[in-house]
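Let's practice the habit of predicting before peeking. Look at the sequence and jot down your guess about where helices and strands might fall. Then scroll down.
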Amino acid sequence: MLDTPTTQPSPPPWTTLLVTTLKDAVRLLPLFALAVLASTALELFVPRDWVYSILGQNPLLAIPLATIAGILLPIPRYATYPIALALYQKGATLAVVYALIAGEVILGALERDIMEFRFFGWRSYMLRLVLCTVFVILTGYALQVLL
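Done guessing? Here is the structure:
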């Protein structure tokens, strides 16, 4: 008699859902907690006048600055929201908050950027970075006018 390979039964969908959710929570919660800690520290220790003078008073400077800050932030997008809210509550405009959040997606995960660079070359990669940055800045200015 020939041995036939046995396949193991797949776990019920709810088990897979629970395990995946718990794995994601363990990975995401520490970063989100750090973002909440940073936003709370910003709320408690950074004067409103200081935030307003940099991110609320001069949108021509604040929107590009927020875009660059968003690009350089070393945290995932979901963790940017508590910080963006704290800045908004301290006097940053909605256009500046938009630029911060939208700037965050210009550079993606390192492995995605490496693949893009490898598959399409440095020119394409740099062109995308420049065009996306300009687009975020211009839409930030448009939001500043519209809001």
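How did you do? The two ends are 77 Å apart (CA to CA).
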